[in-house]
């Protein structure tokens, strides 16, 4: 049965996120916690709902279990509607053939039958691993007014960083005249955000052609966009002016969390307009004991603070013992920190346990402790260390 939708979103959420090290050993990058309450994937999902898009295919691949469980029926984002909603789409076997998604374009190609159930006029292709608020309906209006075949969201980046991105060179009308994939000497600083709107009938034919090319990387940036430009299709750049961060490295993830602690953060999670939704674990309010002290920090529900927390982001269910000091750090869900511990400029993943008198981190390099790590009394984790998940660390 076909249920007509004007626009269907396809959310690419299978990224391994290898540059995040221990944080993505057991989870896909979009499932990484953020901001004391959220996961990264909350942002594109919430953007879709706030933009009036109620049909979202979530394409998973690497370590999908946590992400699949988190999305569930899509209810936290009001995406549990009967005709549409959030649907998890892993690679699958069809007939005698089955394969992993070989690239971003191949992931969409393999899900053509899903898209055609909704007979859309347009598809919105999103990355599941960026932090930002964006009204996609404004981008869709721009796409229609321009009579475009494809519209690519872009953001101006510092010129010295432009070589890390796909660069869109445009004319005065915003029409894309050239695309450069991570050029060593970029001609502009107009970087692709990995957000695309395509006319469905047009992009469907390019996906079919790309799949038939044995030499293709099956990638939008490397193959599909250049092919459309070569064929003379109308491609436009939609300039985004808000906050956007690719949290693909330990440094960028830490920086983005710390930016939430500014007096007037660029990404305002407290604004009533355009809220970011997430799964609610129904924990009690946080508690700061008589010996506890909190300065310029985010404290999640269910936390018990008996020590000192300064300039840090603390996720739900964390316990920080008497005499402990946590500074400039990110502490994820259900981590327990004993008495008289010191945690400096570190990221502690979920369900880490520190016995008493554990010392972690320093003032310069970020220290990362993977999920399930158990540090016994008096253990020391040096500045800049990356501790793999589920290890037991003892005092030397």
UniProtKB/TrEMBL annotation:
* Function comment: Involved in the biosynthesis of ADP-glucose, a building block required for the elongation reactions to produce glycogen. Catalyzes the reaction between ATP and alpha-D-glucose 1-phosphate (G1P) to produce pyrophosphate and ADP-Glc.
Assembly notes: Homotetramer.
The keyword DNA-binding is annotated on this UniProt entry: no
Protein name per the record: Glucose-1-phosphate adenylyltransferase
Record-marked site positions (Could play a key role in the communication between the regulatory and the substrate sites)? 61, 100
Q: Which UniProt keywords apply?
A: ATP-binding, Carbohydrate metabolism, Glycogen biosynthesis, Glycogen metabolism, Nucleotide-binding, Nucleotidyltransferase, Transferase
Name the chemical reaction catalysed here.
Answer: alpha-D-glucose 1-phosphate + ATP + H(+) = ADP-alpha-D-glucose + diphosphate
Q: Which Pfam families match?
A: Hexapep_GlmU, NTP_transferase
InterPro entries assigned: ADP-Glc_PPase (IPR011831), ADP_Glu_pyroP_CS (IPR005836), GlgC_bac (IPR023049), GlmU/GlgC-like_hexapep (IPR056818), NTP_transferase_dom (IPR005835), Nucleotide-diphossugar_trans (IPR029044), Trimer_LpxA-like_sf (IPR011004)
Q: Which residues form the Glucose-1-phosphate adenylyltransferase/Bifunctional protein GlmU-like C-terminal hexapeptide domain?
A: 289-364
What pathway does the UniProt record associate with this protein? Glycan biosynthesis; glycogen biosynthesis
């Amino acid at each position: 049965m076909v249920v007509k939708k004007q626009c269907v979103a396809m959310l690419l959420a299978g990224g391994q996120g290898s540059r995040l090290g221990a944080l993505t050993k057991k989870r896909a990058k979009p499932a990484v916690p953020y901001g004391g309450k959220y996961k990264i994937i909350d942002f594109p999902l919430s953007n879709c709902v706030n933009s009036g898009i109620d049909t979202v295919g979530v394409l998973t691949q690497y370590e999908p279990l946590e992400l699949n469980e988190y999305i569930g029926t899509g209810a936290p984002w009001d995406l549990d509607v009967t005709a549409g909603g959030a649907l998890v789409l892993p690679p699958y076997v069809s007939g005698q053939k089955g394969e992993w998604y070989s690239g971003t374009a191949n992931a969409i190609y393999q899900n053509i039958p899903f898209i055609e159930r909704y007979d859309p006029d347009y598809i919105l292709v999103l990355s599941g691993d960026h932090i930002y608020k964006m009204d996609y309906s404004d981008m869709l209006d721009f796409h229609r007014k321009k009579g475009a075949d494809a519209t690519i969201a872009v953001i101006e980046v510092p010129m010295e960083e432009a070589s890390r991105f796909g660069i869109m060179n445009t004319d005065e009308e915003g029409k894309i005249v050239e695309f450069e994939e991570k050029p060593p000497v970029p001609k502009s600083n107009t970087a692709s955000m990995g957000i695309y709107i395509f006319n469905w009938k047009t992009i469907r034919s390019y996906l079919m052609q790309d799949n038939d090319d044995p030499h293709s990387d099956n990638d939008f940036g490397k193959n599909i966009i250049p092919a459309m430009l070569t064929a003379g299709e109308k491609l436009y750049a939609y300039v985004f002016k808000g906050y956007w961060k690719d949290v693909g490295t330990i440094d960028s993830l830490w920086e983005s969390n710390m930016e939430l602690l500014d007096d007037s953060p660029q990404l305002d999670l407290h604004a009533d307009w355009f809220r970011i939704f997430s799964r609610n674990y129904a924990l009690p309010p946080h508690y700061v004991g008589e010996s506890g002290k909190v300065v310029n920090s985010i404290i999640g529900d269910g936390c018990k603070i008996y020590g000192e927390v300064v300039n840090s982001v603390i996720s739900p269910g964390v316990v920080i013992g008497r005499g402990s000091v946590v500074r400039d750090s990110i502490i994820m869900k259900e981590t327990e920190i004993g008495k008289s511990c010191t945690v400096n400029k570190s990221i502690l993943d979920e369900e880490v346990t520190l016995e008493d008198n554990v010392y972690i981190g320093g003032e310069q390099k970020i220290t990362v402790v993977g999920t399930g790590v158990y540090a016994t009394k008096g253990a020391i984790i040096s500045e800049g260390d990356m501790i793999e998940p589920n290890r037991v660390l003892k005092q030397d």
